Structures are given as C-alpha cells and as structure tokens.
Amino acid sequence: MNNNKKSIYSALIANLLIALTKFLAGSFTNSSSMISEGIHSTVDTANQILILYGLKRSKKAPDQSHPFGYGKELYFWSFVVSILIFGLGGALSIYQGVLHIRNPQMMKDPFWNYVVLILSLIFEGTSFIIAMKAFNKTRNGMGWWKAMIKSKDPSSFLVLFEDGAAVAGLITVMILMALSHALQIPELDGLASIIVGLLLVFVSFILARESRSLLMGEGIASETRTEIARLVEQDVCVIKTKNILSTYQSPEDVVLMLIIDFKDHLDTEDITEAINRIRTTIKTKFKFIHYVIIQPE
C-alpha cells in the first residue's frame, strides 16, 4: 500500500505541474490537442486526490453501522474516478477534437507546445516508471495484464493506466501536431484530441469494470477457495467442505464463511475446538482473511 501511495503522490505532483503549462501553451498557440492534454492532466490530478481520499477513508475502524469496516470506500471512489476519466477526460477531449475538425483554425508557432510536451513527457514518463515499479512488486510472477485483472486494489494499477495513457497521448499529440503544422492541415490537431479522448475512455472502462466487480461483492479466486478447502479437510474432525462464501471488504480484508460437514460422533466441545483450529489455520495461511465464519452442516 505504501508503494501505491508513493506512485499516486508522484503522479499528483507531475500532473499538477503540467496541467497549467498545457493550458497556457494551448491558449497561446491556439492548439486544440494541447487544451485536451490540459484537460487530461487536470482530470488526472483530481483523480489522484480522490484515490488518496478513498485510501484514507478505507482505513477507518469498524463501528456499529459498518461492522466490517469502511474498506469498500476505496472501490467506491475508484468507480467515481472511472466516471470522471470518461466524462471530464475522454468525452471532453473528443468533443474538443470534433469542434476543431469542424471549425479548423491554423495553429500559431508551436514552439512552446513542443517545450511543454517534452517536459510533460519527462514528468509523466518518470511517474509511469515509478508506477510500474510499484505494481511490479505486487504481481507475484503473474503477467502484467493478468495481474491487473486479478488485483483487488484499484489504486495499484490506476496510476499505471493513467500514466501509460498520458505517455501514449503525449507522443500522439506531438506527432500529429508536427504534421499539422508542417502540412498546414489543422484538422490533424483535432484528430490528436480525439485519439487522446479515446485512450481515456478505454482506461475508464477498465477501471470501471474492476471497481464495479469489487463493489458488487467479488470473492476470492478459485485457486484460493481450493486451497482453503484442502486445509479445512485436513482437519481430523472434518468430512467435507460444503460451501465457501467470501467477499472483499478492501484489498487487504476478506470476509469468509465456510459451511462444513463435521463427523457425526463429535460433541459440541469437539466441534468448537475444531472451528477454532480451522479458523487459526486459515488466518495464519492467508493474512488478508480477517473474518472467518464457520457454520457446521
């Protein structure tokens, strides 16, 4: 989690420094794609603030109204971020690009645009590398895409996706801006805005998909369920694990319920001891499982 916060803070600082300079350069040179890039950086800055807020809220201690804690606050704010990326980032950039294509205006001297883009690429690239290193520590040998899909912590890959889209967008804008100015085709600048917008829409769908799944009560992976069943059935008092129910309250907090068929000759004391033994075994093996509810069949 600390590595995730480090990547979020680095992205926040980078985007805050870049957003204003993009808007100034875009206004000065009459560049639609630079205005879109400014919108992109502003939305990214707001997103990182919201994710940090979600991380803070998710650490609140359980109380009577939320006995399992506030961990799902992170998933809620991640979903809000996906909506912001789609609406304020993607849709506005596409709209800006369409307007510029329908009413093309020749770009003024793009020198300052290039200066801002190169500096932005350096800052965004640095933030992207930091995010890659942070996420790499959580992959546990899995491929990058599989690790993102299986991750239960949106903050771990949010910055990675945002910065990746930002770097791709900057390169696209730089190429099309150069062509637009060299060939005197102002519509290419609008096309760059549309491409940036489509990149943001793609990122928003990925984040929304993962956040929605976790908000809806996504459970532990099938491999983990199989391992838990194996551990339970090793106990001398257990015949079979009938059912395993689970839900993520936060990336590091799972509620687990087991329905277990115990041997018939056991009395209440034997079953109680077996339940305590099984609960300890599971919580020792899987540190992220904090609540284990066991129901004898």
Automatic annotation (TrEMBL):
InterPro entries: Cation_efflux, Cation_efflux_TM, Cation_efflux_TMD_sf, SLC30A9. It is a multi-pass membrane protein. Keywords: Membrane, Signal, Transmembrane, Transmembrane helix, Transport. The keyword Secreted does not apply. Coiled coil: none annotated. It is found in: Membrane. This is Cation diffusion facilitator family transporter. The chain crosses the membrane at residues 74-99, 111-135, 156-179, 191-208. Residues 1-25 form the signal peptide. Residues 10-216 form the Cation efflux protein transmembrane domain.
